[in-house]
Amino acid sequence: MEINRRRVLAAGVGAAGLAAAGIPLTSPAGAALAGPLTETMVLTGTDADNPVDWEFQVTSGRRSGVWSTIPTPSNWEFHGFGSYNYGSALVPAEKGNYRRSFTPPASWAGRRIFLAFEASMTDTDVRVNGTSAGATHRGGFYPFRFDVTSLVRLGQANLLEVTVSKESGDNSVNDAERRGDYWNFGGIFRPVSLLAFPAARIDRVAVNAQAGGAFAAQVTLAGVTAAGRVTGQIRRLDGTAVGGSFAVAVAAGATAATVTTTVAAPLRWTAETPNLYQVEIVLADGAGTALHSTAVRFGFRTIEVRTGDGIYVNGTKIVLKGANRHTFWPTLGRASSPRLARLDIGLMKEMNMNAVRMSHYPPDAFFLDLCDELGLYVLDELAGWQKRYDEGVGAPLVAAMVRRDVNHPSILFWDNGNEGGWNTALDDDFAQHDPQQRKVLHPWTTFSNVDTSHYQTYASTAAKVAGSTVFLPTEFLHGLYDGGAGAGLNDYWKLMGGGQRAAGGFLWSLVDESIVRDDRGGAIDTAGNLAPDGIVGPFREKEASFFTIRDIWSPIQLNSPDYYANTFPTAFDKSVKIVNRYDFTNIDQCRFTWRLVNFAAPGAGAGHAVTAQGSLTGPNIAPGAVGSLILNLPANWLDSDALELTATDPGGRVVTSWMWRIKKAADFRTRLVVPTSGSVTATETSTSITMTAGTTKITIGKANGRLTGVTRAGVAVSLTNGPAPADGASTFTGLSHFQDGTGWVVQSTYTGDLTSARWRLDANGWLQLEYSYRRTGSHDYFGVGFDYPEANVRGLTWLGDGPHRVYKNRLRGVSTDVWTKQFNNTATGASGFQYPEFKGYHARTYWAALATTEGTITMVAAEEGLFLRLFTPAVGVNPQNATVAYPSKGLSFLDGIPAIGNKFHAAGSLGPESQPNVGAGDYHRSIYFRFGA
Known about the structure:
By secondary structure, the chain is mostly beta strands. 10% of the residues lie in helices and 40% in strands.
């Protein structure tokens, strides 16, 4: 993007708002540029956070026909006007009429004045003082401008009138933009300004700055009436000059000039090292007097697609780890701000993403500015969701997009539409405006020697990676509701993250695009199952896949699968084997912090206490290499419950952390289940046996050996009807009961899948259940379950992997700790929007305290690897394949859990981790229960 250094006359907008919008007032060094600048009057606010009211009337829908005011920029649906519509539900009669009075300064006399729109949806007609400013602009996501020099009255009040049609008069524009799989909005949703250029001017600058230091700037000129010169000077962003100035002579009437130089050993731009420069360009007359000055920010970097090999930046192969992002906020629509752009980029960086695809239109310019500054590779996209622009209307839109965005070093590729929405006649138009000659992609197919095909299965992904073409799926693992995104990613990334022709990929998608409906009392509208595809919720609530992606895409990975099971490898020697998955960064630029911790006990809250800690600089491990991190742990480190290790990048951002258990399930069982003196009595009736220890009474049914009743201090606890096989069947064959030391035992035998169940109530009030079952073959899940009414549940505190639920193909991203959460019935992406969700499968549980209206039910596992299932989660409408099986019992203790699918694929097609569990034969577990007040 060209950043014109401007004198800004902010019509109702403060300097802070202008700075946030990326409109600087001076050069970065703080000194004004030589010569006249472009002067700007912002007629709207600078962004959605800093709007300015305009007069407004909508022609149909809510509040139609009445003149009022509306904050601008905005989409009018979010201010009570017009109608909401998704996808192909067109509303051709809905138009917005805007009015704005403005007074440009008399000092603009002799300047060329343009009325500039960053974007409006979609057909836009403009009148200044009652006279048309020019032909209707068509296309809703692109900058456009009108020369209004002859229409404005300087130093006097002027009337600007704008009519924005929600749908276009050009059917190909509607096809490309308004019939896509996303919300359609209307309005002036990006800023509008007056730009006053000197009569002889620099109209735009397009930079080509290569990694080796070669620099060229194509300068477009206008109004040059006499011979002169165009001069350039490269500077760092602090204003320090880099090399000397360079210039080229221009003749009278010149409309273009190219200035060139070479910078020795420039700091290169990558997503890991976002080094930026600026070039100051001055147009001067023959006497050397500056006529117009501007400045452009850029980065030195080179992009290559090496056929049959990969994508290279600055000569190094890179792997793109990204998401598809719509410009979206649930109360703003497509209107945005630098604050919201920074929020989204921060979320992506937190997930260790290094790339973003602009689906399915070019974003706000400030979003690309922040990608340059913070380091994020970009695929910039022309609109066209499965349908295309006609060439006549499309060619100016390509020009507008590329001319605006050409100088962003973050942009690696131009996308010509999406999923068939490309007009091949426009493919060569991109290069006409881009001196860097970046490649054009056709997302969904193979073009420019890059295969971007969407939603491949695990098997077809393996075939693609093994093929002869660079593979970069621009959409994969569709994140409908709680499926996809992180689920299956571990297997996919083993193929896509390091294969010879694997260049990475882009998950669909970043955000649940659900809107707040003021006509429905503030209800969140997900458009059925069309909008909730995100890794984060509409207000950026972090769903479970967020943390899975963060773990899998961390640039620092562990080189032992044992570590990812949260257990230590045999004979741990205080060294951790790590793999450097950065493309450019050595691990010696990173820092690591270790902490020894003890976990909170039941009833003591969540979290852990740190018993010892230390930090160290990373070892010398080059990108792609493996090395060891030696931890200076104290001699008594085995006395702690767990070891936590955290890695931070060169900028101090946490990239990943791990928590490894030192103490095992048996240690916590011993710690919690403490013997006491006393005795247990038993009474028998024709139907049951009741064991009593103090105020705790446990009743076992004689017909099936299952728990039929629990009371504590006279209060009934509704845990019943278990242990029942979660999968399979069994036949009760007999029961016995007897005293066992300080306890009492009820022993049951079965034939079938459940083989035995042994209940033992001890004098201390702890109830032990030992059970055995047999499972072979393939099953979604196996273990045992109980009935408990979820209406009685209030919350859970547990020691295990959390805080999020898991699936068989989404076990990464959770961490061992003592977690707590309140009961909720969130349907991921569809309703509730309270995270972490309460219900579902929870991994590697040691103990759990279920808070209920009947008291606290504490459960302790005696063995490793227990999955605790808590009830059946709610799901959104028509989840397609984004579903998972659950046992019939609401409370389950399991040794195997199922995988989840995504919108387009059943779980079984997503790789090894997504296959059903294969029973290993005989299983035996002990669970301890205690019923508290």
